[in-house]
Automatic annotation (TrEMBL), chain A:
Residues 83-298 form the ABC transmembrane type-1 domain. It is a multi-pass membrane protein. InterPro entries: ABC_transporter_permease, MetI-like, MetI-like_sf. Keywords: Cell membrane, Membrane, Transmembrane, Transmembrane helix, Transport. This is Lactose ABC transporter membrane protein.
TrEMBL record, chain B:
This is Lactose-binding protein. Transmembrane segments: none annotated. Residues 28-47 are annotated as: Disordered. The keyword Signal applies. It comes from the Bacteria. It comes from Gracilibacillus ureilyticus. Keywords: Signal. Residues 1-23 form the signal peptide. Gene3D superfamilies: Periplasmic binding protein-like II.
C-alpha cells in the first residue's frame, strides 16, 4: 500500500479500515470471544493470585507484606522437602515413562504383530481411569497385606511383607510406579500417531544399507519423533509438577512428608493447617516459575533452532 | 499504514477487555441470590417457622444426633431444620473458601467443627461466628471441652461428643500373659510398654496397631499431663516438652521391640483388632462400636482407664477427637443458638436417647446420672462401659489445642522417622522446634 498525502489520507485510512473490518469482522468476533474468555478466566485470576501472594495472615485477616512470602520460602523446610520430592519424581519418573512409552509404541507399531489393537487399547486404558479411583486401588495393592506383597512373598523374593506405604523410600517408589502406570499409555499414543507419519521408505533404505533394527531406532525413529518427544516431556514435566491426587490418596504425603508434593503442600497450607491463602498462592507461583524455566530448558536442549 | 490500523484495533480490543473485566469484578457481588446451593439465610417459611441449615458429617453419628435433636426440640421459636451432609474435609474446605471470600452467602447456620481445628477457624475469621455462651451453661460440660471452643473469654462452640479415651484390651490375651483387670487399671505408659513386651513374648501378638502417619497416640499420652505441642499463648513447645519426650521414648520402645502392627490406613487399623491380631486398642471411645462389630469376639474385650505418663499431675484420662457445634454470624443465628441450647445444651433426656439410639456419648455432665449411662455391656463382659467413660471424661486434663496442631504434627512426623532410624531425641525435638518456628511465626 502506498502513502497518500493530504486530506485524502484520512478518508482513505478509514475506508481501508472499514473494508478490512467488513471483510474480516466475523473472524475478529471469534477472536474477541476467546480473548475475552482467556482474559477473564486466565489472566485476571493470575493477576489476582499474584496480588494474593503478596499478602499473608490467617484466613480472612490478610494484609500486604510485600515479598516476605517469597523470602519465607527459602527458610521453609517443608516447602524445600516438597520441592525435593517433586524433583525426585520428575527426574526418575519422566525419563522412565518416556522410554517405556517409546519402547511400547515401537513394539506396537510393528505391522506383523497380531492383536495390535488389543494391546494398544490395553496399554492406553489406564489413562482413562479416574485419578482417585486408581490411586485408591494402588493403595490397596501396595498395602502391607496387599497383592504386591502377597506376590513377592509367594515367589519367595522377600521374607516379611515390605512396608510399601510406611517406608520413606518405598513410598516414593510406590508413587512413581503408580504415575508411570497411569501415564505411559497416554504418551505412547502420541508416539504411535507420530510413527504413522514416518516415511517407510527411510527404513527400507536403511535396511538396504545394512542398518540393524537398533540403528534404525536410534538414527531414524528417535530423530523423526524428536518434536513429539519434546512435547510429551514438557507436558509430563508440567503434569508431575502438579502431582496431587496420587500423593493425597496413596500416602497422604507421608510417612513424615517423604512423599509430599508441592501441590499437596499448597492444599495443606490452605485447608489442612490454619489457612494462609497468601503463602499458598506464593507456593503456587513457584510452580508457575518452575514450569516456565523447565520448559525453556527443554526447548533449548532439544528444540530445533528455527 | 496497515500496521497502524491493526494497532488501533488492538487498542480497542484491550480497552473492551479491560472494561469487561472491570464490569465483571464490580458487578457480581451484588447480583444473584444463592438460594440454589442450599445455604439457608435464615429465611422464614410460609407457616412462620424460621428455617435454619446445618452442616455435619457422618450420617450414623452426627447427622443422626441432629435429627434426634430436631425431634426433641421444644423451644419457643418455630424452627425448620435442614441438615446437609458433607464429608468433614469438604466442610473444612467450604468454610475456608466461603469465609475467606468475605461473603456469607450459602453458609449454614449451624456447623460442626472438630475441636482440634476450632481455634484455627475462630481466629482466622474473627466475626464469622456468633457467641452462644448465653444460651447454655458452660459449667454443665466437661471442662476440657471449653478451651478449644472459646476465644477471648467468649463461648463460641456448644460441646458435643467426647473423645475420652480408654485402654480397650483382649481379656484372653492379657490373661495368657498373666494380667488381670486390676493389673491394668491406672497404670503408666511405661508399665504399658512392659505389659506389651510380656504379651508379645507369651502370646506372640503385637500389643497395638499404629499408622506411622498418625501421631494420635502421642497426643493421647501427652494430654494425660495436660500439655500440648503449643502452650496457651501459642508458643511452640517441643524442645523442652518433657511429656512429649517421654511419650516419644515410649513410642520408640514400642516400635523397636516390634510390639506394634504397622498399618497404613483406617480399614487396616480396624482389621488389626477385628481379626484378633493385636491385643489392645488404646483409643477414643468412639472405637467401641468398631470393636463390637466383630460378633465372634463377644465377651473377650474389656476396657481400663487410659495409661498416664509417669509424671506429677498426670491423670488416667485423655482425649482423642471430638467436635462441637458452632453458629455462624448470619440471619437466623438467634434461632440456631436457641435450637442448640434447647437440645444439646440442656436436655438430659435427649442425651439418654442420643446414647441408646445413636451411641454418642455427649460431654453434658448431668446426663451421666441418667439410666442409659448405667447400661451393662455384654460385649465387654458386663462392664458399665459408658458410665466409666463418662467418669473418665470429667478428669481429662484441659489442653488448649491452639491453631497449629496439624501443621506441627507434619513436621514432627518427618522428624520421628529419623528418630526411629537413630537420630538423637534432643536433635529431633530441637530441629522440629526450629522448623515449626520458621513455619508458624
Amino acid at each position: 500500500m502506498s502513502q497518500v498525502s493530504g486530506s485524502a489520507n484520512n478518508t482513505k485510512r478509514q475506508s481501508t479500515f472499514f473494508t478490512r473490518f467488513k471483510k474480516n469482522y466475523i473472524g475478529w468476533i471469534f477472536i474477541l470471544l476467546s480473548v475475552l474468555g482467556i482474559g477473564l478466566f486466565y489472566f485476571y485470576p493470575m493477576v489476582q493470585a499474584f496480588l494474593l501472594s503478596l499478602k499473608s495472615g490467617m484466613g480472612a485477616n490478610l494484609e500486604y507484606v510485600g515479598f516476605d512470602n517469597y523470602a519465607r520460602l527459602f527458610g521453609d523446610p517443608t516447602f524445600i522437602t516438597s520441592l525435593t520430592n517433586t524433583f525426585i519424581y520428575l527426574l526418575v519418573q519422566v525419563p522412565v515413562m518416556i522410554i517405556l512409552a517409546l519402547f511400547f509404541s515401537v513394539l506396537l507399531n510393528d505391522p506383523k504383530l497380531k492383536f495390535r489393537g488389543f494391546f494398544r487399547t490395553a496399554i492406553f486404558l489406564p489413562a482413562v481411569t479416574s485419578l482417585v479411583a486408581y490411586a485408591v486401588i494402588f493403595k490397596y495393592l501396595f498395602g502391607n497385606d496387599g497383592l504386591v506383597n502377597e506376590l513377592l512373598l509367594g515367589m519367595n523374593l522377600i521374607d516379611t511383607p515390605l512396608n510399601w506405604l510406611s517406608d520413606p523410600f518405598l513410598a516414593k517408589i510406590t508413587i512413581i510406579i503408580a504415575i508411570t502406570w497411569r501415564w505411559t499409555g497416554y504418551n505412547m499414543i502420541f508416539y504411535l500417531s507420530a510413527l504413522q507419519n514416518v516415511d517407510k521408505s527411510m527404513y527400507e533404505a536403511a535396511r538396504i544399507d545394512g542398518a540393524s533394527s537398533i540403528q534404525q531406532f536410534f538414527f531414524i525413529t528417535i530423530p523423526m519423533l524428536k518434536p513429539i518427544i519434546l512435547f510429551t516431556s514438557i507436558v509430563s514435566t508440567i503434569g508431575t509438577l502438579q502431582l496431587f491426587d496420587e500423593v493425597m490418596n496413596i500416602t497422604n504425603g507421608g510417612p513424615g512428608n517423604s512423599t509430599l508434593s508441592i501441590s499437596m503442600y499448597i492444599y495443606n497450607l490452605s485447608f489442612e493447617y490454619t489457612p494462609d491463602f497468601g503463602y499458598a498462592a506464593t507456593v503456587s507461583y513457584v510452580i508457575v516459575i518452575l514450569v516456565v524455566i523447565l520448559s525453556f530448558i527443554q526447548f533449548r536442549v532439544a528444540g530445533d533452532r528455527d | 499504514m496497515g500496521n497502524k490500523l491493526s494497532k488501533k484495533f488492538w487498542l480497542l480490543i484491550v480497552a473492551l477487555l479491560t472494561a469487561m473485566v472491570l464490569a465483571a469484578c464490580g458487578g457480581d457481588s451484588e447480583e444473584g441470590s444463592s438460594d440454589a446451593d442450599g445455604g439457608g439465610d435464615g429465611g422464614t417459611t410460609d407457616d412462620g417457622a424460621t428455617k435454619i441449615t446445618a452442616w455435619a458429617w457422618d450420617p450414623n453419628f452426627n447427622i443422626a444426633a441432629l435429627n434426634l435433636a430436631n425431634e426433641s426440640y421444644n423451644g419457643e421459636t418455630e424452627i425448620e431444620l435442614e441438615i446437609i451432609e458433607n464429608a468433614q474435609d469438604d466442610i473444612v474446605q467450604k468454610l475456608n473458601t466461603g469465609l475467606s471470600s468475605g461473603t456469607m452467602k450459602g453458609m449454614p447456620n449451624i456447623v460442626l467443627i472438630e475441636d482440634q481445628r476450632a481455634q484455627s477457624f475462630l481466629q482466622s475469621y474473627p466475626d464469622a461466628f456468633y457467641p452462644i455462651g448465653d444460651y447454655f451453661n458452660t459449667e454443665d460440660f466437661a471442662e476440657y471441652k471449653i478451651p478449644p471452643t472459646s476465644l477471648d473469654g467468649k463461648q463460641y462452640g456448644l460441646p458435643f461428643d467426647t473423645g475420652a479415651t480408654g485402654f480397650f484390651y483382649r481379656t484372653d490375651y492379657l490373661e495368657e500373659a498373666g494380667y488381670t483387670h486390676d493389673d491394668l487399671v491406672d497404670i503408666t505408659w511405661a508399665q504399658f510398654v512392659d505389659i506389651a513386651k510380656d504379651v508379645k513374648e507369651k502370646t506372640g501378638h503385637p500389643m497395638l496397631a499404629l499408622d506411622p502417619n498418625d501421631l494420635g497416640i502421642l497426643r493421647v499420652m501427652m494430654q494425660t499431663t495436660g500439655t500440648w505441642y503449643t502452650t496457651e499463648d501459642g508458643t511452640i513447645n517441643l524442645v523442652d516438652n518433657e511429656p512429649l519426650k517421654v511419650a516419644l521414648q515410649h513410642y520408640k520402645e514400642l516400635m523397636d521391640n516390634d510390639l506394634v502392627k504397622l498399618v497404613s490406613d483406617w480399614s487396616q487399623y480396624l482389621a488389626a483388632f477385628n481379626s484378633g491380631d493385636v491385643a489392645s486398642v488404646p483409643a477414643g471411645n468412639w472405637i467401641a462400636p468398631s470393636i463390637e462389630a466383630e460378633e465372634s469376639q463377644k465377651g473377650l474385650w474389656a476396657v481400663a482407664p487410659t495409661p498416664r505418663l509417669d509424671m506429677e499431675g498426670a491423670a488416667n484420662a485423655s482425649n482423642q477427637g471430638g467436635s462441637s457445634w458452632y453458629v455462624l454470624n448470619i440471619d437466623g443465628k438467634e434461632a440456631a443458638a436457641e435450637f442448640l441450647g434447647n437440645t444439646f445444651g440442656s436436655n438430659s433426656d435427649f442425651y439418654q436417647s442420643l446414647l441408646t439410639d445413636v451411641g454418642a456419648i455427649g460431654t453434658y455432665k448431668p446426663a451421666s446420672e441418667g439410666e442409659a449411662y448405667q447400661y451393662e455391656n455384654e460385649y465387654f463382659g458386663g462392664q458399665q462401659v459408658i458410665y466409666e467413660i463418662s467418669q473418665w471424661m470429667e478428669e481429662i486434663p484441659q489442653v488448649d489445642y491452639g491453631m497449629n496442631t496439624y501443621g506441627i504434627e507434619d513436621i514432627l512426623s518427618a522428624e520421628i522417622q529419623q528418630y526411629l532410624s537413630g537420630k538423637s531425641l534432643e536433635d529431633v525435638l530441637a530441629d522440629a522446634q526450629a522448623q515449626a518456628e520458621a513455619q508458624f511465626k
